[in-house]
Amino acid sequence: MADVITTEYRLASEPALRAFAAAALEKVGVSSEDAAIVADVLVAADLRGIESHGVARLEPYYVKRIQAGRLNPRPAVTTVRETPTSILVDAGNGLGHPAGKRTMDAVLAKAAEHGAAFGAVRNSNHFGIAGYYAMQALERDMIGIASTNSVRFAAPTFGRDVMLGTNPLAFAIPANREPAFVLDFATTTVPKGKLEVYQRRGTPLKPGWAIDREGNETLDPQVALTGALLPLGGYGVDNGGHKGFGLGLLVEILCGVLAGGAFGNDLPLPDDGPLPGRISHFFAAFTIGGFRDPLQFKADMDTELRAFKDSAKAPGQDRIYVAGEIEHEKTLFNRAHGVPVHAKVWNGLQSMAADLGLPFEIAKR
Amino acid sequence: MADVITTEYRLASEPALRAFAAAALEKVGVSSEDAAIVADVLVAADLRGIESHGVARLEPYYVKRIQAGRLNPRPAVTTVRETPTSILVDAGNGLGHPAGKRTMDAVLAKAAEHGAAFGAVRNSNHFGIAGYYAMQALERDMIGIASTNSVRFAAPTFGRDVMLGTNPLAFAIPANREPAFVLDFATTTVPKGKLEVYQRRGTPLKPGWAIDREGNETLDPQVALTGALLPLGGYGVDNGGHKGFGLGLLVEILCGVLAGGAFGNDLPLPDDGPLPGRISHFFAAFTIGGFRDPLQFKADMDTELRAFKDSAKAPGQDRIYVAGEIEHEKTLFNRAHGVPVHAKVWNGLQSMAADLGLPFEIAKR
């Protein structure tokens, strides 16, 4: 399952990459505090091997949207409603990462005091990997949950309109010696980027991934890109497509509807023009100590995760991975060897640096 | 998607069926309070069209297990740990339904006071449909979550050992005029009962459902029944099988590990002999009022659910169903016309009534 790091990749220094990403955002008006948070979330994605959500998105998703006036670099972030165990934040059409991290911080503080708390953010923008926010709970011996809606790419079961985002859900649960359980997944079968990869390669899609504009399943990547993604479980109900659709709609409700943000037909399509931040996020945390001694729980987590990892393998497989394990190993490897950045992304960052008048010194030495 | 009610089904009176189920449980020593809860959960499943979890299970899962001494009809249920926002209950190897319902009641009371709460139950048994407990939140304008682990039927991604239950997750979110959103799904692609149906029919399975004993995908129902179910998303990772595995393991952790119950290799296999209740459950609830005015939220839920239902249909489809909608319509229909009970199940109940010395007057008049 691990991606092979070929010569198409160059290795960046982790602190230099983080500093560069932050500097670029500061150049377009983001406060240094906010820029540092965004940079940390993006580099965390690259460290975890989730390139699609890393520094590759710095320019197109954040810098350019700020430059185009679509996203406010200095938003007025306000708390709309707050109780001892809940908080609803309006991100003021700012970057999703600082609003997300700070709201999860507030949720964790409330949960530390009261045992459990929930949070939501509206009027926000793309916040990177959902897992980052769920993982904020780990060091506090809590279980963390994070989610976000997104621009629309997917159709409901039995439908053909593009109605749902890839709507990821993330859960983070600490262990002791084993890496934490971190489940962070899109509720569509595959992300849109996968269709693009198959289009470039000229290879057919797998069944269960996408439909054409008329709502028929298609294996043609070009046709699929003008159609819609399918929910986890695929076409129709035979393989549980209605479960994936249900999960996607759950995320829409917990984010858009609960936060009082955009949802349903008001959620933007990918090709909609400049739109103010219509993305919403959802967070939750609760203390393990409310149920069991955290040390005992984490020791049991080790036993549990090992039971699965040590179980018999399917033919041709030599490992069973539990959620978050690959990303944890990649993080350790990339921390030691440098953060792999695809050559195209590297060159893009370099030319953005030139445009912004920034030094570009990210190479691992 | 609706099941056709043929002459294979007979119609029972809802109150008579509930009273009969309760009487049968009382006959084997269950208290009248507990018996009434079990009966309500079972009949709710039949009303919702989830026959597999209804009165069909009354004798094999509950009455016979009590008679065999596997399940304690008068358990000592104890609260192991409790905080203002959490509760951990030991069900004393009793029926799962009363322990589940009362723990969710406690979670809802805590959430009503503090805004959010979580609960878990260990040393329990099969509790019927998870959706029942999540739906307890609806009338209180809360969002409810319920889950349970189960005996093992499924293999992890890249594995071949039977390691995971069907591990359902349920979420209930209220709406106003629209039926509530109730997502209640097994984290395997299909339930084990589906393999048995295909075996009886002699038709091949679909890809993505099951593996043989060696861990290869199989379409042969007989072979699959000696193998394992696959997680939602199917074989390997191409269609997101690792996501379904992650969800199944999440449920195992939130139930078995968090509750301090059985998990991993200690969780029973279906053919294990008489085992004390090693099943655990998980519950959560939080108030909508912590985020928004509940009336406004529920009006927005109507808009949201209608947006999906009114969106364009795939070829050959005339409806898009949101989670819980079919079950809601079946409940209304069955309430009006009688609860459909399969002739085989009906006859089984009748012979159990004779064995227990109970009158059998469940027919709808």
H and E string of chain A: EHHHEEHEHEEEHEHEHEHHEH
What fold name goes in the CATH topology slot of chain A? Ribosomal Protein S8, Chain: A, domain 1
**Reported CATH architecture of chain A:** 2-Layer Sandwich
What share of residues are in beta strands of chain A? Answer: 15-25%
Strand tally of chain A? 11
Overall tally of domains of chain A = 1
Q: What's the CATH superfamily of chain A, by name?
A: Malate/L-lactate/L-sulpholactate dehydrogenase, NADPH binding domain
Q: How are the strands of the biggest sheet of chain A laid out side by side?
A: 2-3-4-10-5-6-7
- Rg of chain A is 20 Å
State the major sheet of chain A: 7 strands, mixed
- Low-pLDDT parts of chain A are none
CATH class categorisation of chain A: Alpha Beta
Oligomer: homodimer
Keywords:
homodimer; alpha+beta; 11 strands; seven-stranded mixed sheet; two-stranded antiparallel ribbon; 365 residues; Ribosomal Protein S8, Chain: A, domain 1; 16% strand; 11 helices; 39% helix
Provide a descriptive summary of the structure in words.
The structure is a homodimer of 365-residue chains. Chain A has 365 residues and is α+β, with helices and mostly antiparallel strands. Chain A has one domain (9-293, 330-356): Malate/L-lactate/L-sulpholactate dehydrogenase, NADPH binding domain (Ribosomal Protein S8, Chain: A, domain 1, 2-Layer Sandwich), CATH 3.30.1370.60. Helices cover 39% and strands 16% of the residues of chain A. Chain A has 11 helices and 11 strands. The first copy, chain A, has helices at residues 14-27, 32-47, 58-67, 96-114, 130-135, 192-201, 221-225, 241-259, 294-309, 325-337, 343-356; strands at 9-12, 78-83, 86-90, 116-124, 142-148, 169-173, 181-185, 210-211, 228-229, 279-287, 339-342. A 7-stranded mixed beta sheet of chain A has the order 2-3-4-10-5-6-7, sandwiched between helices. In chain A, strands 1-11 form a two-stranded antiparallel sheet. In chain A, strands 8-9 form a two-stranded antiparallel sheet. In chain A, β3 (86-90), α4 and β4 form a beta-alpha-beta unit. Chain A is globular and about 50 Å long. Chain A starts with 8 loop residues before the first strand and ends in a 9-residue tail after the last helix. The relative contact order of chain A is 0.17.
